[in-house]
Amino acid sequence: MREVIADWLMVLGAPLLLLSLFLTWSHQFSRGFLVQYEHTTALAGIPHDPTAWQVYSIVDVLMALLAAGLFAVALLGSRPGRIGVLLGLVVAIVFVIHALGTPPTNGANLFDPALGTYTPNHPTSGVGEVVALIGLMFGSAGVLLSFTV
């Protein structure tokens, strides 16, 4: 019974992790910043609420591979495969927790000549990071439970 539960936790965690990559991972600009500068050409082409695919260049692909590995391990994984996936899950959890505290942004800053300084902007994290963390927790719980079988 534990093996079935472990496999289902991994099978549920994998698509959640993959889904999170298509959700908003960062609100690039704070509301006050957007109210003041929404119609300037300086922000043209910069997504306001980018997905993981838009923010990252390598991490998004690694997360997608981890989701595929988690799914594969749930279906046919051996003990060494589960250990490898568990190591990837630990690194991914640390990364996502860091991204929650320090939202990813492309570093877009605007210089306001009226103020003589850069305009303050406070980006926030998006729902994608939370969904990723939930998927990673399901996957980790499944892998760890599978070791008790």
Compact description:
The protein has one domain (2-29, 50-105, 121-146).
Secondary structure: elements and pairs:
Layout: H1 2-20, E1 26-27, H2 31-37, H3 52-55, H4 59-76, H5 79-101, E2 111-112, E3 117-118, E4 124-125, H6 127-146
Antiparallel strand pairs: 1-4, 2-3
Helix pairs in contact: 1-4, 1-6, 4-5, 5-6
Question: How does this model look, in words?
Answer:
61% of the residues lie in helices and 5% in strands. By secondary structure, the chain is mainly alpha-helical. The chain has one domain. The strands form 2 sheets. Strands 1-4 form a two-stranded antiparallel sheet. Helix 4 (59-76) runs antiparallel to helix 5 and helix 5 packs antiparallel against helix 6. The chain is elongated. The chain starts with a helix and ends with a helix. The model has no long low-confidence stretch (mean pLDDT 86).
